[in-house]
Known about the structure:
Mean pLDDT: 91
Number of strands: 10
Structural class: alpha+beta
Amino acid sequence: MRSVSIFIMMLPLFALFSCGSKSRQAAVADNRVKVCIETDKGKFTVALYDETPLHRDNFVKLVREGTYENTLFHRIIKDFMVQAGDPNSKDAPDGVLLGDGDVGYTVPAEFNQKLIHKRGALAAARMGDEVNPEKRSSGCQFYVVTGRKYREGELLEIEGYINNTRLQAIGEEQYMKEPRFKYSETQKQEYISRGGTPFLDTNYTVFGEVIEGMATIDDIENSTTDGNDRPTSNVRILKATIVR
């Protein structure tokens, strides 16, 4: 992986449906902006969080402009995530390494401790810390979390890792003035019962979640990939549409 690629780091730590159909989860998100994404493996719908307005509005803008049509899911890692949105992937030859494409701007990070990398979370990819210390998001590339289930002890270790990383970044004086990162009981149960990628929390902006069609994401995740994590058979976004 080239250092300039936009990606999600794996930090070293311990059935088809109609986009207009309703589900219990969708009913909860009725007041949020929703986007139906149609792929050649099926459809899924995401609800965008109002708590991350910069990312929400940018995603809506790109959908309305047709930016995502014909782009690929160009990076897939089992039990981790599926990544898409690289404009360079539209006409990319088979086997070419992707992940460098952008739309000419980045989006400021919008971290929110209430919004975690649970299974089905929609989040923004970004450049690595060495060239992007502010952790600004890619203007277009996104990923959907698949992840795995975690034990409570593992989550406590991750809490400690996140807090220690924050201490190193801002210094002890400022650190002592701020609340510690800590998962709520609801968040812990989410990771324990359904899974996700908690080690990405506070590092990448989560700005939505899949509310319908997670089976499609699972199907995409199970694609055979090459040494660069690109599917050996293209998985393409056919259309993205704002739905109500």
